[in-house]
Predict the 3D structure of the following.
Amino acid sequence: MPYRLLIVEDSPELLEAVSDFFLEEGAGLWEVVTASDGNDALAKATGGSFDLMILDIMLPGASGFDICKAVRRKDDCPVIFITALGSENSILKGYETGCDDYLVKPFSTRHLYAKSLALLKRAKGGQVSEEIRCGDITLNKKTMLVKVKDREIQINSREYFLLLFLIENKGSVLTRKSILEHVWGDDLDVNDRVVDNTIRRLRESLAEAAGQVKTVIGRGYRISED
Amino acid sequence: MPYRLLIVEDSPELLEAVSDFFLEEGAGLWEVVTASDGNDALAKATGGSFDLMILDIMLPGASGFDICKAVRRKDDCPVIFITALGSENSILKGYETGCDDYLVKPFSTRHLYAKSLALLKRAKGGQVSEEIRCGDITLNKKTMLVKVKDREIQINSREYFLLLFLIENKGSVLTRKSILEHVWGDDLDVNDRVVDNTIRRLRESLAEAAGQVKTVIGRGYRISED
DNA sequence: AACGATATGTCGTCAGTATGTCATGAGATA
DNA sequence: TATCTCATGACATACTGACGACATATCGTT
């Protein structure tokens, strides 16, 4: 049940960059539909039901405003406008049509992503499931379930929070000290070796994906995509 | 996902020097946008979304304060002011407008860089990845990973901290004594020759980039850009 | 409360790796 | 040439992390 996202933008590079970012970062959270001209966008927007739309204003064919208005007649899917150099007028017009947020080019894709997530969360009443993926491992922060290659696996609490910490910092080497601080918190009257052992048990639980948890001798552990 | 940085400064030499320093030192960490007059800066500052701004106060067109005020209406990106006149008045005015730090000319570029990183780290909640580059070698202090020509290399703990010490003092010749003190710390009951040996092993690990680790006969070692 | 099941921390051992030491020789320096 | 400095290879040892086995702690069920 990924969220359906429509991105409308006439610059192919930007369209691809944004689309890729959502697919990469969201890892299964989004189903992305794209359009690069107004008429195509209008057809898709009124045809399918989307959870979020990102619309460029200046488009060949219908404008972003037209698309927004057409959609608003049907339902109230959240809309983010993208606009080239910030004339306040067109932004105001955007708010009249009922957009929920806007960004002025050039913008940071990460920023756009953050806004999208926030908007979606508000629209769904905080019910957005946030899945994080790392290679074959998928961790769902909301349901607290972990999958390896789409097969759900059994994992206990300590292992879960350790895995979460690893994945949230994927790529980075995490020292035992920082792992203890973040995963064990105040219960700091524990032996360093618990980390080793929990890592070991985590690897057992992860089965085929065990290899993704790398040991960096003398420094700590890290998780990688393969 | 580099951090977007806007630098506004009307002296072309200084503008280039600062911009270059960030690009060199940061190695992919920054995406730098520059402007040399107030109006251009105002357009860019309000147009794009930046993670950090460095603003000169005295500018043709709008002043640094104007730019800061305009930005603060939209979001709260951290701002560092550069000012020629060290008069307390204009500095105070800077803080009223809501700048996060300031520097009085002439200043050291390295100093500015350090302030920028600190500010960015605070704004992002400590999530800034710090990459340091030296020639073909890239060392990431956060992930503790080392790359040679964008290829990740295997490196052990002692070699890692030795390389870090070399790179943080790139250009300088480091004596065995100072290397021992910084990399080995308290374990000072070791032979001087461990340094030689660790340097040797480091060179092996660095492969093609081995040549960047220079021997300075009679004095010690240093790392260079080529 | 009593019981069992599971989760979690601790310990000892072992193998692999990292690291320190030494001997030797090449090259620089005087 | 004599001497000093560093590079290199070989070796010894210390260290680190993996693993198995065990001890508690926690939790749910009866």
Remarks:
- Residues 193, 196-197, 199-200, 215, 217-218 of chain A lie near DNA strand D (CB under 10 Å from a C1').
